[in-house]
Amino acid sequence: MRSATTHNPDGVSETPPGGASPDFGKVRDELRALTSTCGVYDLSTRAKLEITGNDRIRWLNGMVTNNIRDLAPGHGIYSFLLNPQGHILGDFFAFNRGDRVLVDTDQTQVEKVLATFDHYIIMDDVEVANVSEKLTSVGIAGPNAKDILKAAGFEVGDLKPLQIEDIAWKETKASVVCGEQEPYPSYEIWIAKEQADQVMTALRSAGATPASRDALELYRIALGIPRYGQDIRDRDLPQETEQERALNFNKGCYVGQEIVERNGERSPVRRPADQITRTIFMAEKKQDAGFTVTDRRLFTSEGELRSDVPEEKPPAEAPVVVAQPSAATSASTATDPEIPPPPSVAEQKANVDAYRQSSKDLDARVELSGQSAKELEMTFERFMASLYMSAMLQLGMMHEQGGQPRIDLIGARQTIDTLALLQEKTKGNLTSVEEGFLQNCLYELRMAYVEVTNALARPPAPGAAAGSKPR
Question: For the chain: N or C, fewer Cβ within 10 A?
Protein backbone atom coordinates (compact mmCIF):
# COMPACT_ATOMS: atom_id res chain seq x y z
CA MET A 1 0.00 0.00 0.00
CA ARG A 2 1.05 3.61 0.00
CA SER A 3 2.96 3.19 3.23
CA ALA A 4 4.94 6.07 4.72
CA THR A 5 7.27 3.65 6.47
CA THR A 6 10.26 1.83 5.07
CA HIS A 7 12.41 -0.77 6.80
CA ASN A 8 15.56 -2.77 6.31
CA PRO A 9 15.18 -6.47 5.55
CA ASP A 10 17.73 -8.99 6.71
CA GLY A 11 20.81 -9.21 4.57
CA VAL A 12 20.52 -5.92 2.70
CA SER A 13 22.59 -2.78 2.98
CA GLU A 14 21.81 0.11 5.27
CA THR A 15 23.72 3.11 6.56
CA PRO A 16 26.62 1.82 8.67
CA PRO A 17 26.99 2.85 12.35
CA GLY A 18 28.79 6.08 13.06
CA GLY A 19 27.21 7.99 10.18
CA ALA A 20 29.34 6.57 7.34
CA SER A 21 27.90 7.01 3.88
CA PRO A 22 25.95 4.12 2.34
CA ASP A 23 27.03 2.38 -0.85
CA PHE A 24 25.16 4.59 -3.32
CA GLY A 25 25.89 2.26 -6.21
CA LYS A 26 24.04 -0.52 -4.41
CA VAL A 27 21.26 1.84 -3.33
CA ARG A 28 20.85 2.96 -6.95
CA ASP A 29 20.47 -0.66 -8.08
CA GLU A 30 17.91 -1.34 -5.36
CA LEU A 31 15.97 1.77 -6.32
CA ARG A 32 16.02 0.71 -9.97
CA ALA A 33 14.52 -2.64 -8.91
CA LEU A 34 11.67 -0.90 -7.07
CA THR A 35 10.85 1.23 -10.11
CA SER A 36 11.75 -1.05 -13.03
CA THR A 37 11.56 -4.72 -11.95
CA CYS A 38 10.68 -5.76 -8.39
CA GLY A 39 12.02 -5.07 -4.91
CA VAL A 40 11.15 -6.77 -1.62
CA TYR A 41 11.42 -5.27 1.87
CA ASP A 42 10.60 -5.97 5.48
CA LEU A 43 7.71 -4.11 7.18
CA SER A 44 7.98 -5.63 10.64
CA THR A 45 7.83 -2.22 12.33
CA ARG A 46 4.34 -1.62 11.01
CA ALA A 47 1.93 -2.17 13.90
CA LYS A 48 -1.43 -3.93 13.66
CA LEU A 49 -4.31 -2.92 15.95
CA GLU A 50 -7.54 -4.92 16.02
CA ILE A 51 -10.85 -3.21 16.85
CA THR A 52 -13.82 -5.42 17.77
CA GLY A 53 -17.26 -4.96 19.36
CA ASN A 54 -20.74 -4.17 18.09
CA ASP A 55 -20.07 -0.40 18.00
CA ARG A 56 -16.69 -0.61 16.24
CA ILE A 57 -17.84 0.86 12.90
CA ARG A 58 -19.92 3.70 14.31
CA TRP A 59 -17.31 4.53 16.93
CA LEU A 60 -14.29 4.56 14.58
CA ASN A 61 -16.25 6.52 11.97
CA GLY A 62 -16.70 9.25 14.58
CA MET A 63 -12.97 9.25 15.33
CA VAL A 64 -11.25 9.58 11.94
CA THR A 65 -11.33 11.83 8.88
CA ASN A 66 -12.33 9.21 6.31
CA ASN A 67 -15.50 7.16 5.78
CA ILE A 68 -15.42 3.95 7.82
CA ARG A 69 -19.20 3.55 7.85
CA ASP A 70 -19.46 2.75 4.12
CA LEU A 71 -16.21 0.77 3.86
CA ALA A 72 -16.94 -2.61 2.27
CA PRO A 73 -15.51 -5.78 3.85
CA GLY A 74 -12.14 -6.64 2.36
CA HIS A 75 -11.26 -3.01 1.58
CA GLY A 76 -9.24 -0.31 3.31
CA ILE A 77 -8.78 3.46 3.45
CA TYR A 78 -6.13 5.92 4.58
CA SER A 79 -7.15 8.33 7.33
CA PHE A 80 -6.01 10.88 9.90
CA LEU A 81 -6.69 10.88 13.63
CA LEU A 82 -7.27 14.44 14.89
CA ASN A 83 -7.66 16.27 18.17
CA PRO A 84 -10.66 18.62 18.70
CA GLN A 85 -8.56 21.52 17.36
CA GLY A 86 -8.12 19.71 14.03
CA HIS A 87 -4.41 18.93 14.48
CA ILE A 88 -3.12 15.55 13.30
CA LEU A 89 -2.41 13.04 16.07
CA GLY A 90 -1.55 10.20 13.69
CA ASP A 91 -2.21 8.55 10.34
CA PHE A 92 -3.07 4.96 9.50
CA PHE A 93 -4.84 2.57 7.16
CA ALA A 94 -8.09 0.99 8.36
CA PHE A 95 -9.37 -2.27 6.83
CA ASN A 96 -12.85 -3.72 7.21
CA ARG A 97 -12.23 -7.39 8.01
CA GLY A 98 -15.92 -8.27 8.48
CA ASP A 99 -16.13 -9.02 12.20
CA ARG A 100 -13.39 -6.54 13.07
CA VAL A 101 -11.48 -3.51 11.83
CA LEU A 102 -7.72 -3.80 11.46
CA VAL A 103 -5.66 -0.62 11.80
CA ASP A 104 -2.19 -0.55 10.20
CA THR A 105 0.17 2.18 11.41
CA ASP A 106 3.81 2.75 12.31
CA GLN A 107 5.12 1.41 15.61
CA THR A 108 6.21 4.92 16.59
CA GLN A 109 2.56 6.01 16.61
CA VAL A 110 1.08 3.10 18.55
CA GLU A 111 1.27 4.64 22.02
CA LYS A 112 -0.43 7.87 20.96
CA VAL A 113 -3.08 6.13 18.85
CA LEU A 114 -3.97 3.69 21.65
CA ALA A 115 -4.13 6.51 24.22
CA THR A 116 -6.43 8.54 21.95
CA PHE A 117 -8.66 5.54 21.30
CA ASP A 118 -8.86 4.83 25.04
CA HIS A 119 -9.73 8.46 25.74
CA TYR A 120 -12.84 8.32 23.55
CA ILE A 121 -14.18 4.87 24.46
CA ILE A 122 -16.69 5.79 27.13
CA MET A 123 -19.83 3.67 26.94
CA ASP A 124 -19.20 2.01 23.60
CA ASP A 125 -19.05 -1.72 22.92
CA VAL A 126 -15.53 -1.42 21.52
CA GLU A 127 -12.32 -3.27 22.33
CA VAL A 128 -8.87 -2.45 20.95
CA ALA A 129 -5.96 -4.90 20.98
CA ASN A 130 -2.39 -4.64 19.69
CA VAL A 131 -1.81 -7.81 17.63
CA SER A 132 1.60 -6.79 16.26
CA GLU A 133 3.31 -9.65 18.08
CA LYS A 134 1.23 -12.14 16.09
CA LEU A 135 0.95 -10.45 12.68
CA THR A 136 3.66 -8.85 10.55
CA SER A 137 4.13 -7.61 6.98
CA VAL A 138 6.46 -8.06 4.00
CA GLY A 139 6.31 -5.54 1.15
CA ILE A 140 6.97 -5.94 -2.56
CA ALA A 141 6.96 -3.21 -5.23
CA GLY A 142 7.70 -2.80 -8.92
CA PRO A 143 6.18 -3.50 -12.36
CA ASN A 144 6.87 -7.23 -11.98
CA ALA A 145 5.46 -7.48 -8.45
CA LYS A 146 2.39 -9.56 -9.33
CA ASP A 147 4.43 -12.01 -11.43
CA ILE A 148 6.91 -12.41 -8.57
CA LEU A 149 4.04 -13.07 -6.15
CA LYS A 150 2.68 -15.78 -8.43
CA ALA A 151 6.11 -17.36 -8.87
CA ALA A 152 6.51 -17.46 -5.07
CA GLY A 153 3.18 -19.26 -4.68
CA PHE A 154 0.89 -16.33 -3.81
CA GLU A 155 -2.11 -16.68 -6.13
CA VAL A 156 -4.20 -13.48 -6.01
CA GLY A 157 -6.85 -12.02 -8.30
CA ASP A 158 -7.03 -8.57 -9.84
CA LEU A 159 -7.20 -6.53 -6.64
CA LYS A 160 -8.23 -2.90 -6.48
CA PRO A 161 -6.16 -0.37 -4.51
CA LEU A 162 -6.27 -1.17 -0.77
CA GLN A 163 -8.28 -4.34 -1.37
CA ILE A 164 -7.24 -7.33 0.71
CA GLU A 165 -7.52 -11.03 -0.16
CA ASP A 166 -7.07 -13.95 2.23
CA ILE A 167 -5.20 -16.91 0.73
CA ALA A 168 -3.53 -20.14 1.76
CA TRP A 169 0.24 -20.28 1.27
CA LYS A 170 2.18 -23.45 2.02
CA GLU A 171 -0.47 -24.69 4.45
CA THR A 172 -0.55 -21.41 6.36
CA LYS A 173 -2.93 -18.45 6.24
CA ALA A 174 -1.83 -15.18 4.65
CA SER A 175 -3.43 -11.97 3.42
CA VAL A 176 -2.32 -9.97 0.39
CA VAL A 177 -3.07 -6.22 0.25
CA CYS A 178 -2.90 -4.29 -3.02
CA GLY A 179 -1.01 -1.00 -2.88
CA GLU A 180 -2.73 2.36 -3.13
CA GLN A 181 -0.95 3.74 -6.21
CA GLU A 182 -2.02 1.90 -9.36
CA PRO A 183 0.72 3.37 -11.64
CA TYR A 184 3.37 1.95 -9.28
CA PRO A 185 2.31 -1.63 -8.38
CA SER A 186 2.99 -2.80 -4.84
CA TYR A 187 1.63 -5.38 -2.43
CA GLU A 188 1.89 -6.23 1.24
CA ILE A 189 1.78 -9.77 2.56
CA TRP A 190 0.38 -10.12 6.07
CA ILE A 191 1.61 -13.29 7.68
CA ALA A 192 2.21 -14.81 11.10
CA LYS A 193 5.41 -13.38 12.55
CA GLU A 194 7.21 -16.74 12.57
CA GLN A 195 6.56 -17.12 8.81
CA ALA A 196 8.09 -13.76 7.75
CA ASP A 197 11.59 -15.08 6.99
CA GLN A 198 10.14 -17.89 4.89
CA VAL A 199 8.06 -15.40 2.87
CA MET A 200 11.06 -13.13 2.34
CA THR A 201 13.19 -16.05 1.14
CA ALA A 202 10.47 -17.23 -1.28
CA LEU A 203 10.11 -13.80 -2.86
CA ARG A 204 13.86 -13.36 -3.24
CA SER A 205 14.12 -16.82 -4.82
CA ALA A 206 11.35 -15.82 -7.26
CA GLY A 207 13.45 -12.88 -8.48
CA ALA A 208 12.73 -9.93 -6.15
CA THR A 209 15.69 -7.74 -5.21
CA PRO A 210 16.07 -6.93 -1.48
CA ALA A 211 15.68 -3.17 -0.96
CA SER A 212 17.52 -1.33 1.79
CA ARG A 213 16.27 1.42 4.04
CA ASP A 214 18.07 4.07 1.98
CA ALA A 215 16.52 2.88 -1.30
CA LEU A 216 13.06 2.76 0.26
CA GLU A 217 13.44 6.28 1.61
CA LEU A 218 14.30 7.58 -1.87
CA TYR A 219 11.35 5.65 -3.29
CA ARG A 220 9.01 7.15 -0.68
CA ILE A 221 10.18 10.68 -1.47
CA ALA A 222 9.81 10.11 -5.20
CA LEU A 223 6.20 9.02 -4.76
CA GLY A 224 5.50 12.08 -2.60
CA ILE A 225 4.43 10.00 0.42
CA PRO A 226 4.70 11.99 3.67
CA ARG A 227 5.99 10.39 6.86
CA TYR A 228 4.28 11.21 10.14
CA GLY A 229 6.73 12.84 12.55
CA GLN A 230 8.90 14.07 9.68
CA ASP A 231 6.73 15.55 6.91
CA ILE A 232 3.48 15.55 8.89
CA ARG A 233 3.69 17.14 12.33
CA ASP A 234 1.29 17.05 15.26
CA ARG A 235 0.61 20.77 14.84
CA ASP A 236 -0.40 20.42 11.18
CA LEU A 237 -3.95 20.60 9.86
CA PRO A 238 -5.06 17.95 7.31
CA GLN A 239 -5.21 20.37 4.37
CA GLU A 240 -1.61 21.40 5.03
CA THR A 241 -0.43 17.91 4.10
CA GLU A 242 -2.05 17.82 0.61
CA GLN A 243 -3.35 14.32 1.45
CA GLU A 244 -6.92 14.73 0.20
CA ARG A 245 -7.18 10.92 0.07
CA ALA A 246 -7.46 10.96 3.88
CA LEU A 247 -10.55 13.22 3.93
CA ASN A 248 -14.25 12.65 3.30
CA PHE A 249 -16.53 15.69 3.50
CA ASN A 250 -19.83 13.74 3.35
CA LYS A 251 -19.28 11.07 6.01
CA GLY A 252 -20.83 12.77 9.04
CA CYS A 253 -19.30 14.18 12.18
CA TYR A 254 -15.99 13.24 13.80
CA VAL A 255 -13.43 14.68 16.19
CA GLY A 256 -11.90 17.83 14.67
CA GLN A 257 -14.38 17.96 11.79
CA GLU A 258 -15.44 21.57 12.29
CA ILE A 259 -11.90 22.78 11.62
CA VAL A 260 -11.53 20.54 8.55
CA GLU A 261 -14.88 21.71 7.15
CA ARG A 262 -13.95 25.33 7.75
CA ASN A 263 -10.75 24.94 5.75
CA GLY A 264 -12.41 22.72 3.14
CA GLU A 265 -14.31 25.66 1.63
CA ARG A 266 -11.17 27.76 1.34
CA SER A 267 -8.33 27.56 -1.11
CA PRO A 268 -6.07 24.66 -0.03
CA VAL A 269 -3.95 25.44 3.03
CA ARG A 270 -0.39 24.35 2.39
CA ARG A 271 2.89 24.43 4.20
CA PRO A 272 6.03 25.74 2.47
CA ALA A 273 7.31 23.87 -0.57
CA ASP A 274 10.04 22.14 1.45
CA GLN A 275 7.44 19.97 3.18
CA ILE A 276 8.28 17.07 0.88
CA THR A 277 11.20 17.27 -1.56
CA ARG A 278 10.16 15.19 -4.55
CA THR A 279 12.92 13.44 -6.50
CA ILE A 280 11.92 13.31 -10.15
CA PHE A 281 12.99 10.06 -11.71
CA MET A 282 9.56 8.56 -12.41
CA ALA A 283 7.75 8.84 -15.71
CA GLU A 284 6.29 12.30 -16.24
CA LYS A 285 2.61 12.68 -15.47
CA LYS A 286 0.11 14.72 -17.40
CA GLN A 287 -0.84 17.85 -15.51
CA ASP A 288 -4.51 18.32 -14.73
CA ALA A 289 -5.95 21.42 -16.36
CA GLY A 290 -8.42 22.09 -13.58
CA PHE A 291 -8.46 25.64 -12.28
CA THR A 292 -6.05 28.56 -12.28
CA VAL A 293 -4.82 30.01 -8.99
CA THR A 294 -4.10 33.74 -9.11
CA ASP A 295 -1.88 35.26 -6.43
CA ARG A 296 -3.74 38.34 -5.19
CA ARG A 297 -1.71 39.00 -2.05
CA LEU A 298 -0.94 42.67 -1.53
CA PHE A 299 2.56 42.15 -0.07
CA THR A 300 5.63 40.08 -0.95
CA SER A 301 7.23 37.61 1.47
CA GLU A 302 9.67 40.42 2.41
CA GLY A 303 6.80 42.73 3.36
CA GLU A 304 7.07 45.01 0.30
CA LEU A 305 3.94 46.28 -1.45
CA ARG A 306 3.41 44.42 -4.73
CA SER A 307 2.96 46.35 -7.95
CA ASP A 308 1.69 43.45 -10.05
CA VAL A 309 -1.49 42.58 -8.20
CA PRO A 310 -4.16 41.80 -10.85
CA GLU A 311 -7.19 44.04 -10.83
CA GLU A 312 -10.36 42.46 -9.60
CA LYS A 313 -13.80 43.90 -9.94
CA PRO A 314 -15.71 43.84 -6.67
CA PRO A 315 -18.75 41.55 -6.71
CA ALA A 316 -22.07 43.24 -7.06
CA GLU A 317 -23.75 43.61 -3.71
CA ALA A 318 -27.08 41.97 -3.18
CA PRO A 319 -29.93 44.45 -2.88
CA VAL A 320 -30.88 45.29 0.66
CA VAL A 321 -34.25 43.82 1.48
CA VAL A 322 -35.90 45.70 4.31
CA ALA A 323 -38.90 44.10 5.93
CA GLN A 324 -42.04 46.20 5.93
CA PRO A 325 -44.02 46.06 9.17
CA SER A 326 -47.32 44.26 8.54
CA ALA A 327 -50.70 45.50 9.54
CA ALA A 328 -51.05 42.67 12.03
CA THR A 329 -47.74 43.59 13.64
CA SER A 330 -48.69 47.22 13.87
CA ALA A 331 -52.01 46.28 15.47
CA SER A 332 -50.41 43.95 18.02
CA THR A 333 -47.79 46.50 19.11
CA ALA A 334 -50.45 49.13 19.42
CA THR A 335 -52.48 46.98 21.84
CA ASP A 336 -49.50 45.55 23.82
CA PRO A 337 -47.37 48.33 25.32
CA GLU A 338 -44.69 45.83 26.50
CA ILE A 339 -43.70 44.93 22.91
CA PRO A 340 -41.44 47.65 21.45
CA PRO A 341 -42.43 48.93 18.01
CA PRO A 342 -40.47 47.48 15.07
CA PRO A 343 -37.71 49.62 13.55
CA SER A 344 -38.68 51.82 10.68
CA VAL A 345 -37.64 51.10 7.08
CA ALA A 346 -34.93 53.77 7.25
CA GLU A 347 -33.58 52.40 10.56
CA GLN A 348 -33.42 48.86 9.17
CA LYS A 349 -31.55 50.01 6.04
CA ALA A 350 -29.06 52.02 8.09
CA ASN A 351 -28.57 49.02 10.36
CA VAL A 352 -27.86 46.69 7.40
CA ASP A 353 -25.42 49.16 5.83
CA ALA A 354 -23.52 49.59 9.10
CA TYR A 355 -23.29 45.82 9.59
CA ARG A 356 -21.95 45.31 6.07
CA GLN A 357 -19.35 48.03 6.48
CA SER A 358 -18.16 46.58 9.80
CA SER A 359 -17.92 43.13 8.20
CA LYS A 360 -15.85 44.52 5.31
CA ASP A 361 -13.47 46.20 7.76
CA LEU A 362 -13.02 42.96 9.68
CA ASP A 363 -12.47 40.99 6.44
CA ALA A 364 -9.78 43.46 5.38
CA ARG A 365 -7.92 43.03 8.69
CA VAL A 366 -8.12 39.25 8.39
CA GLU A 367 -6.79 39.28 4.82
CA LEU A 368 -3.87 41.52 5.84
CA SER A 369 -2.93 38.99 8.52
CA GLY A 370 -2.40 36.39 5.77
CA GLN A 371 -5.59 34.42 6.38
CA SER A 372 -8.77 34.08 4.36
CA ALA A 373 -11.86 36.04 5.29
CA LYS A 374 -13.92 33.03 4.23
CA GLU A 375 -13.04 31.49 7.60
CA LEU A 376 -15.56 33.89 9.12
CA GLU A 377 -18.43 32.85 6.89
CA MET A 378 -21.14 30.71 8.41
CA THR A 379 -22.41 27.78 6.37
CA PHE A 380 -25.20 25.35 7.11
CA GLU A 381 -22.73 22.49 7.60
CA ARG A 382 -20.69 24.51 10.12
CA PHE A 383 -23.85 25.41 12.01
CA MET A 384 -24.91 21.75 12.13
CA ALA A 385 -21.40 20.66 13.17
CA SER A 386 -21.37 23.14 16.06
CA LEU A 387 -24.71 21.77 17.33
CA TYR A 388 -23.45 18.20 16.91
CA MET A 389 -20.31 18.94 18.92
CA SER A 390 -22.42 20.60 21.64
CA ALA A 391 -24.67 17.55 21.92
CA MET A 392 -21.69 15.17 22.06
CA LEU A 393 -20.18 17.23 24.87
CA GLN A 394 -23.51 17.22 26.72
CA LEU A 395 -23.74 13.43 26.36
CA GLY A 396 -20.24 13.02 27.81
CA MET A 397 -19.05 11.38 24.58
CA MET A 398 -16.45 14.11 24.09
CA HIS A 399 -14.68 16.47 26.43
CA GLU A 400 -11.86 18.97 26.47
CA GLN A 401 -8.38 17.50 26.55
CA GLY A 402 -7.30 17.04 30.14
CA GLY A 403 -10.85 17.41 31.46
CA GLN A 404 -13.47 14.92 32.57
CA PRO A 405 -16.68 14.07 30.67
CA ARG A 406 -19.83 15.71 32.06
CA ILE A 407 -23.31 14.50 31.17
CA ASP A 408 -26.21 16.92 30.70
CA LEU A 409 -29.06 14.79 29.35
CA ILE A 410 -31.62 17.60 29.35
CA GLY A 411 -29.27 19.91 27.43
CA ALA A 412 -28.39 17.10 25.01
CA ARG A 413 -32.06 16.35 24.34
CA GLN A 414 -32.80 20.03 23.71
CA THR A 415 -29.90 20.25 21.27
CA ILE A 416 -31.04 17.10 19.43
CA ASP A 417 -34.61 18.44 19.33
CA THR A 418 -33.25 21.71 17.92
CA LEU A 419 -31.66 19.79 15.06
CA ALA A 420 -34.93 17.91 14.48
CA LEU A 421 -36.82 21.22 14.45
CA LEU A 422 -34.40 22.60 11.89
CA GLN A 423 -34.85 19.47 9.77
CA GLU A 424 -38.62 20.00 9.79
CA LYS A 425 -38.52 23.76 9.13
CA THR A 426 -35.94 23.52 6.33
CA LYS A 427 -37.59 20.61 4.52
CA GLY A 428 -37.36 21.13 0.76
CA ASN A 429 -34.87 24.01 1.09
CA LEU A 430 -31.63 22.07 1.57
CA THR A 431 -29.18 20.64 -0.95
CA SER A 432 -28.73 16.87 -1.01
CA VAL A 433 -25.36 17.25 0.74
CA GLU A 434 -26.84 19.46 3.48
CA GLU A 435 -29.81 17.15 3.94
CA GLY A 436 -27.55 14.09 4.19
CA PHE A 437 -25.27 15.88 6.64
CA LEU A 438 -28.22 16.79 8.88
CA GLN A 439 -29.65 13.26 8.72
CA ASN A 440 -26.29 11.76 9.70
CA CYS A 441 -25.92 14.14 12.64
CA LEU A 442 -29.41 13.35 13.94
CA TYR A 443 -29.00 9.60 13.47
CA GLU A 444 -25.69 9.43 15.32
CA LEU A 445 -26.81 11.74 18.12
CA ARG A 446 -30.06 9.86 18.74
CA MET A 447 -28.17 6.56 18.88
CA ALA A 448 -25.66 8.05 21.31
CA TYR A 449 -28.48 9.52 23.44
CA VAL A 450 -30.22 6.13 23.70
CA GLU A 451 -26.94 4.40 24.58
CA VAL A 452 -26.13 6.89 27.32
CA THR A 453 -29.61 6.82 28.87
CA ASN A 454 -29.70 3.01 28.78
CA ALA A 455 -26.22 2.80 30.30
CA LEU A 456 -27.18 5.17 33.12
CA ALA A 457 -30.31 3.11 33.82
CA ARG A 458 -28.36 -0.15 34.12
CA PRO A 459 -26.65 -1.01 37.42
CA PRO A 460 -22.87 -1.29 36.91
CA ALA A 461 -21.45 -4.82 36.70
CA PRO A 462 -19.35 -5.78 39.75
CA GLY A 463 -15.72 -4.78 39.23
CA ALA A 464 -16.32 -3.45 35.70
CA ALA A 465 -15.08 -0.03 34.64
CA ALA A 466 -16.70 1.93 31.82
CA GLY A 467 -14.68 1.86 28.64
CA SER A 468 -12.24 -0.82 29.83
CA LYS A 469 -10.73 -3.04 27.21
CA PRO A 470 -7.88 -5.49 26.80
CA ARG A 471 -4.46 -4.42 25.64
Answer: C
